[in-house]
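Intended use. Records like the one below are meant for learning the mapping from a protein sequence to its folded structure. Do not use them to infer anything beyond what is encoded.
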Amino acid sequence: EEEEKLKLKRRETLERRWRTTVKYVGGELAPTFVGTALAGVGLSTSASVVRGVGATPFLVGAGGAAVVGGVGLASALTLASVLPKYRARQSEKESAAAAAKAKAKEFA
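Structure written out for the chain above:
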């Protein structure tokens, strides 16, 4: 039994360390790494190559970004109109359940 407790304690310690490490890497280091990567891409891109490619890739990228943004906006607006109705129904159900519970206590 002592051995099981020790194993459990080791596992909890390992999980805690893992969570701390992941939180640090994701929260502190990731923005720095992303910024460094973007700077590297920007520094290695020459203006002549961009001019040679033309505007088509940029227009396609802008179109894709507009579609993704539009879908996100539509989703947010839909959820904003649906969630209050859903929450109101949930609240009504909870109120009805509480009232039924109170009545049941009266008769008990």
